[in-house]
């Protein structure tokens, strides 16, 4: 599940977790920015609606992408693990300049796509410069370590977040979505406190983190992104507490960034919007 | 509303905000610790039930304090501002070794006690070594700047917290109560981001911050205290956002401390429970 290696002559594509609830219209700042990155009118978008149990989820995005103006927008239906070895579906993904995963349940994505040719293709494509976005469950699925489930609440508790292996486009962040709307700070802190190796990104609805090839994140959208930086963590009692009991954490750094704000995953420096 | 000056020969009394919902039984770690500080069997406790609109709130605490074992536990009923100039009530407060404010609505405390002889007496008594505790609304009322009201939610928004002048026992902290239970991180961050001079203490239910004369806080109780340290705040957009809109904050430090944990308001260093 490690990210595929970026070769010397290539540049990784953008990784774009969206917090869910983005405006599904052609004027959406998030979706238009995604399409522009993918080539604008020359973009070939593959839509993976696997997370959703609704039949029209893919159609809605296809309509919006076509309204924005793309060369093609194809729905790649992956309902069974065997679909992820289908040569026609793999070929559609192979020719895409951008791949978009809809919302729903991230465990559907992980159980159906995990370990298949589609998962390998997506990691390799991203390493070769293809941009991959996911909203809500599609965002949660992006990193190597995914929050599978866990209840809301402002403060961390033993076992509050259940992690599972994700797609593995990056191993530098853990992502939580619908962040402000569902009060998930405690869940994200819990997820990070197991092993504070990475950065927590709490992504609000209608908000996206555009993680560039240089590992600088730019925030786009109407909400905010809560960046949890455990670099300076001095103490975590997660190993000692029983399920549901509060966890002691000392030395967490926290930023709340809005549209135009940036966070550098390498230097771990945050900057506000210059506008 | 500034704290009264502690004279050279005196030591300030403890200031004890409790997050509400503390166990009102004689085995309560919080209440027994408070009584012990106040002199144990020699303690003379004055109970101020002003925040509450219920008639028996003071009685419940009197019963518990008597069960723990004190020299006296007197209810000082302050329902009108004129009550706060009553010589008999002032005399009861004057002879107390500890003063306890119940929960209810902190604006009742502020509107009835603020600016009266009782408020002045309490600040002076604390500077002379008398311990003052407050639970829930009683906790919110303690500092110079009090959160009067504001909705829950994990992330800060413009105008989310409404501040009002409090009792003024300390100007080093802003207190929020029922913290974890009501998801008030956003409210406390909002309150701090107006003017990040102080430390935010988010106190969970059945949990207390025993703020000592040396300004070292010790945590007692079954929940946690979320310490928000804005010392390193690099940027706040609170001045630029309209009401209800998200606020950009960069460089917040956050600790979650449990029973036995400590935070030094002078050095701003946190330490976990040694146990």
Concise account of the structure shown:
Two copies of one chain form a homodimer. Chain A is of the alpha/beta class.
Outline the fold blueprint.
Two copies of one chain form a homodimer.
Chain A (H helix, E strand, L loop, with lengths): L14 E4 L10 H9 L6 E5 L8 H12 L3 E4 L11 H8 L3 E4 L4 H8 L3 H11 L3 E5 L1 H4 L4 E5 L12 E4 L7 E4 L8 H10 L4 E5 L3 E5 L4 E6 L2 E6 L5 E2 L12 E10 L3 E3 L4 E3 L4
Parallel strand pairs in A: 1-5, 2-3, 2-4, 4-5, 8-9
Antiparallel strand pairs in A: 1-10, 6-7, 9-12, 10-11, 11-15, 12-14, 13-14, 15-16
What is the CATH C-level name of chain A?
Alpha Beta
Instruction: Count all strands of chain A and give the number.
Output: 16
Can you tell me the number of structural domains of chain A? 1
Mean of all residue-level pLDDT scores of chain A? 93
Topology order of chain A in helix (H) and strand (E) letters: EHEHEHEHHEHEEEHEEEEEEEE
Please mark out the parts of chain A with pLDDT under 50 across 5 or more consecutive residues, or reply none. none
Structural class of chain A: alpha/beta
The percent of residues in helical segments of chain A reads: 10-25%
Keywords (chains A, B): Hydrolase, Protease, Serine protease
Function (chains A, B): Exopeptidase that catalyzes the hydrolytic cleavage of multi-L-arginyl-poly-L-aspartic acid (cyanophycin; a water-insoluble reserve polymer) into aspartate-arginine dipeptides.
Enzyme class (chains A, B): hydrolase
Organism (chains A, B): Algimonas porphyrae
């Amino acid at each position: 599940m490690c990210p595929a290696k970026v070769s010397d002559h290539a540049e990784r594509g953008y990784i774009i977790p969206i917090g869910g609830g983005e405006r599904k219209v052609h004027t959406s700042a998030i979706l238009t920015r995604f399409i522009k990155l993918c080539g604008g009118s020359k973009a070939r978008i593959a839509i993976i609606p696997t997370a959703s149990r609704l039949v029209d989820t893919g159609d809605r995005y296809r309509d919006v992408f076509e309204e924005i103006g793309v060369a093609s927008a194809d729905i790649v239906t992956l309902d069974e693990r065997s679909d992820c070895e289908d040569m026609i579906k793999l070929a559609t993904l192979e020719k895409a300049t951008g791949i978009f995963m809809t919302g729903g349940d991230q465990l559907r994505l992980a159980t159906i796509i995990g370990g298949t040719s589609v998962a390998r293709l997506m990691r390799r494509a991203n390493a070769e410069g293809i941009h991959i976005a996911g909203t809500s469950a599609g965002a949660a699925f992006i990193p190597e370590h995914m929050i599978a489930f866990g209840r809301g609440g402002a403060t961390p508790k033993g076992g509050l977040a259940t992690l599972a292996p994700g797609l593995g486009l990056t191993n530098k962040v853990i992502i939580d979505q619908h962040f402000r709307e569902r009060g998930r700070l405690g869940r994200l802190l819990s997820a990070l406190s197991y092993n504070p190796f990475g950065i927590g990104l709490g992504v609000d609805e209608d908000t996206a983190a555009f993680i560039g090839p240089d590992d600088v994140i730019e925030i786009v959208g109407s909400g905010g992104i809560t960046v949890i930086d455990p670099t300076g963590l001095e103490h975590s009692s997660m190993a000692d507490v029983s399920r549901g009991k509060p966890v002691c954490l000392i030395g967490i750094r926290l930023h709340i960034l809005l549209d135009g704000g940036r966070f550098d995953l390498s230097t771990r420096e945050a900057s506000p919007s210059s506008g």
